[in-house]
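Give me structure tokens for this 252-residue protein.
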Amino acid sequence: MFLFYRLLLAHIIADFPLQTNRIFKVKTNTQWGVLIHTLIVLMFSILLTLPYLVEPKVIIILLIIFLSHTVIDKLKMEYSKKIKNHSTRILLLDQALHIAIIAVLTFNFTESYFLSSPFDSVFFNYLIDIYNSDIFIVSLIGYITSVFFIPILLMHIREEGIPANPKKLKEQKIINIKIPANQTLDKFYRLFLTLSTQYLDDKYIIVIFICFVTISYIPYRLSAERMEKVYNLKRIINSSLAILIGTILKML
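Here you go.
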């Protein structure tokens, strides 16, 4: 599982925090855009598996991941353009295929390799220890998922009957249905929930969950318009998923 964690982290870093709006536009509007994105995947796969590269099998695994990621993303882009829609099903299927390929390729790989520091420095030794820590790798996967993947997932959740073009809505209604998908405050909010759930005692986790869900559920029940209900439902999902990720990390 050690190699799996590192390749999964490389995939998540390249697919979420490093897939910026500019890279996404290049990816969707140019012929070689997908290749630029998958080269980033390959680069981080190499950086996170440096001690494993002594094994020829690992190099083959990295190349297969690179090629499969390129093919899957290219097919996804073509299909999305054809149907003119980026649905939640396409997003989840895309991620499931990538993760499944990584899992299959690393299933029987049980060896563990560790990076050693060429410098006699406390600071560099500390960084190397962090790099070699699978607990840190797994935690980082959870944090990035909480901070970056949840808002992308919520952006794909749209209530039927709400116009895709926000210009058709009144300004107040736009505010009501908009989730701060990429705002710094919202990122820290989810990270706080995940970290709190991971490190606090179970009794505090229950209190945090009840408080945040209640804060979101009350306006959801009181909201009269469908668009406001969608917004408040997303707030509930936003909090619940961040806490769920923290709970999973706590169990590992």
